[in-house]
Design goal:
five-stranded mixed β-sheet
Amino acid sequence: MSVPAAREHIKSTVKDAADIVQVVGEYVELKRAGNRFTGLCPFHNEKTPSFTVNPQGQFFHCFGCGEHGDVFSFVMQYHHMDFPEALKTLAQKYGIEMAERQLSEAEQIQLRRREILYEANEAAAVAYQGCLRHPKLGKVARAYLEQRGVPAAIVDRYRLGFAPDPEQVGWSFLTDQLVAKGIPADDLEKAGLAVGKERGGHYDRFRSRIMFPIVDMTGRVAAFGGRILGEGKPKYMNSPESPIFEKGRLLFGLHQHREAIRKQRRSLVVEGNFDLILLAVHGIDNVVAPLGTALSSDHIHTLRGYGDEAVLLFDADAAGLKAAMRSIPFFLAEQVEGRVALLPDGHDPDSYVRAEGPAAIAALVEGARPLAEFAFDTLVREHGLTLAGKNKIAAELKGLIKESADPEQRALMVAHFSEKLGVSQGYFLSEQKAAQVLAAPHDSSSSPGPAHLPKQEKQLVDFLILYPEYMGELKKVGLDRIIQEPAAVRFISLLERAAGVASCQPEQLLEFTADEYERGYIVQLLMQVSPYEEGQKEEHARRMCDELVQWLFSVEHKRAVADLQEQINRAEGLGNTELLMDLIRQKQEIEQKRRGF
């Protein structure tokens, strides 16, 4: 079997096995609506669900932003993967063996590079876990975890480990182990596990640290976070970014806590790994933590797929206030309900839950302040309500208002802040009106396509998209001669190309066009609910085909008669009796044939 054929075979096998409702449902809360499922789109901001999954066609489509595709498209877009990685991820999920020779050489190389990094991280996680359990090497680390109140069950659940002190094991303890296992030192450096020396060789990046494996949403170890034991800086250190790790996208704990977040429809965001671990110890497991960076727009976008709101559980010190304020524009832009719960002075989530218990955390979360209120009060404390202070507050609030993607939310914020500051709404609205003009949706009604075809031709194109197996029958009765509208001709050509290299399945048509308008039209058509039961569809298609055959005959007949009539008129004008009689005879034969049909 050739490489292209083998690749197509494994792709079809994986696609047949992967249930798009199950795959999408892991990241989007779906609700049944007839024979489809709907939910909030994970690819754009919305409050009213416009995202649809069609289990019959195994496709998704968002009527809000236009994103659409099959199960591979979803995995690629959601996880920012390329096709080979999405294919392998789904193959592994559904237990399908996939030989790398079935991919192109370039795809194999790219996939293998990423796989080596995942393999290196997994081997490192196992090694770190072994060090933590080691009677001698892990003694100090186990004592520290015990002193922090972290039980063995939590250690196992989060796969906590220990990077030992170089005074005990040397500076290349992990690097030597993994190189001995066949992982090149250069790949360990790319994974962020080893650091290259100027004069050659490598040493371990993580030393004397409690290790937290950072797991991506496929369940694989993408990076590590390490907390120093004893003196030393930095106190917390994360892996550098790599081809499999972006700090601004992953959240510590989300993979382990996604079901708890989905069940409670709320996520708690804390600043540190130990904050998350200690809250989990006390039964609070809808918690996530950013990875050594501020909460980003991508983080909040990801959380939106799991719950209705996110509560920032931050320290009340200057750093905590600054972190909360920095995140507000992202909440507004992503249209995620956000609130802020500030801990009492001198406490972080870890110390507070140990001192007061989980009920105190729950009370704090329930009393969390909406982002807008928190922002205003923070700015008032910072600038005061003098004339100069109000000017500074208003300038910063204008920036926040502009970030909101919801016009109604912007209007409410304008009304609320203007009342609070004692200024007219026009003070905020002048810039908003200009922004609304710039953000006005593009009118696509003039775009050429099947939607603008004459009714009968549109019906024919729609029929062929849904039932491409009837193409040959319609071509025999003059499809190519009769259909001349450019949009219809383009779609028929598309269908012919698809039928030439693949089985006649409507959804496969998407693989043969990159035009977003055409792809959107196809998916919207596939998403429509059929009024017919499964057993009636074939009968309906046959009846539709017969009607279209009759229509094609009728159009061809009318065109032939009109053409002959024009020739008859010319012959009559020229006084050519012989030609006139021959043309009249031809017209009569066509009419007789039509009546016979």
